[in-house]
Amino acid sequence: MRILFVSLFLLIGSLPAQACGNPLLWAMLFKKVPEAKMVFEAELAARADGLITARVYDAKPGQPYHQWSRAWLLDLGAEMQTTVTGMLAPGEDLTILLADEVAALRFSHEAGVEFVPAAGLRAIERYDLITSINALKSVWRDGLSYSEMLEQDLAWSADGGEEVTLAGVFAAN
Predict the structure, then answer these.
(1) Residue 16 pLDDT grade (very low, low, confident, very high; cuts 50, 70, 90)
(2) What gap in Å lies between CA 69 and CA 108, rounded to an integer?
(3) Strand partners, 115
(4) pTM for this model (two decimals)
(5) 131: closest CA among 33, 10, 22?
(6) 17: which of 24, 66, 68, 156 lies 20 to 30 Å off by Cα?
(7) Average of per-residue pLDDT across 46-58
């Protein structure tokens, strides 16, 4: 029985780490970044309370979920790009970890918006903001305020200086 469990664990764990979190990726992320677990749990509670809503899965026929999710996030990032890069100094970047996706969006003047999949997260030294896809969508598109996002633990930021930039980004929208 133990061999079967270990074999299944290794098989599942060896699947490509693209977009979209899964229990193994969440466990690894939450161990490395405990704040991501707090944000993840807060999102589940906020969705149950009706404060935020999940994005609508509207993939084209035959389009895999991972491909749809990555494209959806890049579309959201493209909407945010002008505002975010307008708040950044030249050479500066802003990285948003998406706890539920186990991926990140990175904004910079040089590269615009980039999607960083789970496999690329180990190269990132720090996150300016930790949130979830649905919380980010809610603050950008649905009228949730950034202060309410913070009050409900739907976002976490370590730097006070970044708080000013992030508040400016979401207030400008």
Answers:
(1) very low
(2) 21
(3) 105
(4) 0.85
(5) 33
(6) 156
(7) 94
What is the β-pairing status of strands 155-156 and 112-116? unpaired
Is residue 129 a contact partner of residue 138, using CB atoms and an 8 Å limit? no
- List all residues 6 or more positions away from 76 whose beta carbon is below 8 Å from its beta carbon: 105, 136, 137, 140, 141
pLDDT surpassing 90 at residue 172: no
* Residue pair 135/43 in contact by the 8 Å Cβ criterion: yes
At position 34, the amino acid (one-letter code) is: P
155 sits in which H/E element? strand 155-156
Contact in structure between 78 and 113 (CB atoms under 8 Å) = yes
Both tokens assigned to 36: 């991501």
Q: Which helix H or strand E contains 44, and what residues bound it?
A: helix 34-49
Both tokens assigned to 42: 């807060």
